[in-house]
């Protein structure tokens, strides 16, 4: 395969990539502006907006709450999703297509509808447990990602290795931990990362279920954008962008999972 | 219990543990374990996804009298209202327009990127992939806000246009254009990735043969890459259409109150006006739109494509 790419295409791709990063770079520039309002190009240089944001208890509270929520949701999604993926891939179950359809349908039904439907159900049940509601809502939308990525790695498990280990006298729990686990580990890790990000970034589920005491970051960001006009919003946005970059680095370097693999 | 041995001879078989287990496995085909593994997830989604969504659909067929009491029986009243009220119908049309245009413009931008990923060599593929995927990790509120800083009156675009001599640059913020631009940006990755994998599956030697035989790059694209990448395009379009039709945050931040989409309408009807049946009807309509798009693009287009590709071979 020697198919080459024409220089024209390269130029077009370059321009499109510039447009793609522009909305992530411009807030960075504006966040250092020493003016009381948002202006481009930024005037002067200051880091006071960052100081303001970092000192803001509301921002910190939301951030920590979202981390906690995403961690719990990911743990539950894995606890439900790993056995489910194993069951789906290692057994031929009648009705498997229907089961798979149910599992993947939260990816098809618009999130905003899933959210409002849950709100309706919770109010029908008379539930006031906001935290539990958020956990349930986020788990519904994170589960499909976990099951998809864990299933993909279970499918690739080499059954011959298991048989070999069993013949050599390895009891089932040893086969599970020493033979199967190392093979499915990357898929589980990818699923966990996916779940964490989906929960951490979710807006359309949280907007129905959250309340003042349980206020995830995306909702907080939105209220800040709505009510204030100084560069502190740009500073928060920049922090979120830097946080995402950090996440990219951690995923690629620490976990050794390429971002492309995560997306496909 | 009499008769049990008839149903399951394993229960009355010799008390040999492994023999019993084997027999039991032979009878159930080892399925019981499989079902037990799957059951918690299925139960969870049945209770917390299927039930609420179905009850939302049911709710859309009910109505309330003026004093808020539920009226007995089913009615299509909410749907009639949705299609016959000018304001709501305009929002529906705008939503479809934005979703269609986002998919089309998205595809236009996605093709060069997908070709670069599939054909541009490892370095280029990596740079493009990371630049396209990384924004997905940035919260959608932040990405939309980024466009606000570009498109507003004192924003980057106005500055850029002024510096090249445009006296009064258009202010795009809080127009449908702003919503469209940001939607294309936010959902672009969902178009690029399936396209790139479809193009990557095309045998490079086909293009090479066409080029050697004298086809221009353009006709090579139009007659080989484009038709053979249609399955990827179908996946991309149905994803982007579904996501942008149901978008809430992006239209809210960039369109303000001037160009609401169906998502905003649901939120208003339910949280502000407390009209649950009508909100449920809009929700059901959104589900229907998304399902139909998925069916049309994924099933029909793919089937036709399979036949077409089979005939070509």
From TrEMBL, chain A:
State the InterPro entries in the record.
Answer: MetI-like, MetI-like_sf
Enumerate the spans annotated as ABC transmembrane type-1 domain. Answer: 63-251
Query: By its UniProt entry, which Pfam families does this protein fall under?
Result: BPD_transp_1
Single GO cellular component annotation?
plasma membrane
Q: Which UniProt keywords apply?
A: Cell inner membrane, Cell membrane, Membrane, Transmembrane, Transmembrane helix, Transport
What membrane topology does the annotation report for this chain?
Answer: Multi-pass membrane protein
Membrane-crossing residue ranges in chain numbering: 12-40, 63-86, 98-123, 129-147, 188-209, 229-251
Q: Name one GO biological process term.
A: transmembrane transport
PROSITE patterns annotated for this entry? ABC_TM1 (PS50928)
Keyword Cell inner membrane carried by entry: yes
Q: Subcellular location, in the record's words?
A: Cell inner membrane; Cell membrane
Protein family: Belongs to the binding-protein-dependent transport system permease family.
Protein name, per record: ABC transporter permease
